[in-house]
Design brief:
The complex is a heterodimer.
Chain A lengths: L1 E4 H22 L3 H7 L4 H45 L3 H19 L37 E8 L2 E7 L5 E7 L11 E8 L2 E8 L6 E7 L2 E7 L3 H10 L2
Antiparallel strand pairs in A: 2-3, 3-4, 4-8, 5-6, 6-7, 7-8
Chain B lengths: L1 H8 L7 H21 L2 H17 L1 H4 L8 H18 L22 E4 L3 H12 L3 H12 L4 H8 L3 H21 L3 E2 L1
Antiparallel strand pairs in B: 1-2
Helix pairs in contact in B: 2-3, 2-5, 3-5, 5-7, 6-9, 7-9, 8-9
Classes of the chains: A alpha+beta, B mainly alpha.
Chain lengths: ~240, ~180
């Protein structure tokens, strides 16, 4: 006799249960004999077929989802690589840029109305001058000055006047643009005349141009020259 | 490309794995369930439930071919059969005869036992004399390694009642060995 703890009985019990179970399984008649003695009902066969069919479909769907996910990832990676390679090409980049600009012009561009409630961007607006940019002429010219050249770009017109000493002044008339003034290296002031405000930039440097800009009825005007500001202002006031 | 895709979706080794396993073990599963339920419709339901449970946890039971054994499905069928009896209020929770009342842990802390094949053989004999229901409970305890609570959950029974029943089974088997002189406490 040996003194042993109760765990030995549990081990013995487990061993005995396993041995008994195996004996029961061995003692079982063959599958065919059992099924002849106890055939399954049709309802049971139908239920089991449905169970296995559902499980097969689920496995197929799961595998299809897995393949699809992998395919999408591969396509995304390849597309990204291809796009990166194409964007290195200048022609492709230019085409993309043109497409974006076209889209912007067609769908996104925003136009602003002026204070009169009309659209100053379109020459057809009755509040805007019916003239074109090239129709505007200075009716006062200092002695000796004549029109040297004229250039028309869309709605804009650029005129150059010169005298016999090759002194020049330029008049730029623009419909859909605005002119700026450099007031950092010059003296800036404004003058009002006949309802129009003239912005004057008088240069300190006698070799640099003085500038006058103003707007009227949708047009923007810019006058630049080496002439005294007084002469330039007189020319500006005569533009009509 | 499409045929390759379809072929990948249905691998030969997995195509009817569940159906093949079922066909190999369905007979013994039904016989085992019948021995417990004594009702063919209930027995068929127990077989269906056991296979359904196995499919739902297929990663656990089917991932390793070594686990696809008849032993596991038979025990699952037995637990499903007990569950069915419990649902139908047919699971008998009556006291086992000739068993001492449940007091504390029950078995003595230390006892002496005659080691050897004889004790194991006698214990095996007593187990074979148990009715199918009690045998199923002790098999779930010893072969699956489940706790009393887990067994109660498997068969849908009350935890305390199941624990008491299993304890009394162990006590009965223990007393059988003691009466035959294999245990001296």
């Amino acid at each position: 006799m040996i003194n042993i703890g109760s765990t030995v009985f549990d081990s013995l019990l487990t061993e005995a249960v396993q041995a008994n179970f195996q004996e029961d399984m061995i003692a079982m008649p063959p599958e065919g004999d059992i099924l002849r003695e106890h055939p399954f009902s049709k309802e049971h066969i139908r239920r089991m077929d449905k169970l296995f069919s559902r499980e097969r479909n689920r496995a197929v769907a799961k595998r299809a989802l897995s393949f699809t996910r992998a395919a999408v990832i591969v396509i995304c990676v390849l597309s990204t690589l291809l796009a990166s390679l194409l964007m290195v090409n200048p022609q492709v980049r230019a085409a993309v840029r043109d497409a974006i600009v076209q889209f912007y012009n067609d769908h996104i561009r925003i136009t602003f109305d002026d204070a009169d409630g009309g659209d100053t961007d379109t020459p057809e607006n009755p509040n805007v001058e019916t003239k074109t940019a090239q129709d505007f002429l200075p009716h006062y010219l200092p002695d000796g000055y004549t029109l040297l050249a004229e250039e028309i770009l869309g709605y804009d017109c650029f005129k150059i006047y010169m005298d016999e000493n090759r002194n020049m002044f330029m008049l730029d008339v623009a419909l859909l643009a605005a002119h700026g003034l450099d007031i950092e290296h010059s003296k800036y002031r404004t003058e009002a005349y006949d309802g129009i405000t003239y912005h004057i930039s008088e240069t300190y440097d006698e070799d640099a141009y003085s500038n006058i800009v103003w707007t009227r009825n949708g047009f923007s005007f810019a006058l630049a020259g080496l002439l005294p500001v007084g002469d330039l202002l007189q020319i500006a006031r005569s533009v009509a | 490309m499409l045929s390759f895709y379809i072929a990948m979706l249905e691998k030969d080794e997995e195509r009817d794995i569940f159906a093949e396993f079922y066909n190999a073990h369905r007979g013994r599963c039904l016989k085992v369930a019948l021995s417990i339920t004594k009702n063919k419709a209930w027995a068929e339901e127990a077989v269906h439930e056991a296979f359904l449970r196995m499919i739902r946890h297929k990663e656990k039971y089917f991932s390793d071919p070594c686990k696809r054994t008849g032993t596991l499905i038979v025990i699952m069928v037995k637990s499903a059969a007990l569950n069915k009896l419990e649902q139908e209020n047919r699971l008998d929770h009556a006291l086992l005869e000739d068993v001492e009342p449940f007091v504390g842990d029950g078995l003595p802390d230390v006892f002496r036992i005659v080691a050897g094949k004889e004790a194991a053989n006698r214990l095996q004999y007593h187990i074979s004399q148990l009715d199918p229901i009690n045998k199923s409970l002790i098999e779930m305890k010893c072969l699956l390694g489940k706790t009393d609570c887990e067994i109660a959950e498997l068969i849908g029974s009350n935890k305390n009642a199941t624990a008491v029943r299993i304890h009394r089974l162990r006590r009965k088997l223990y007393d059988s060995l003691r009466k035959e002189g294999f245990i001296d406490d």
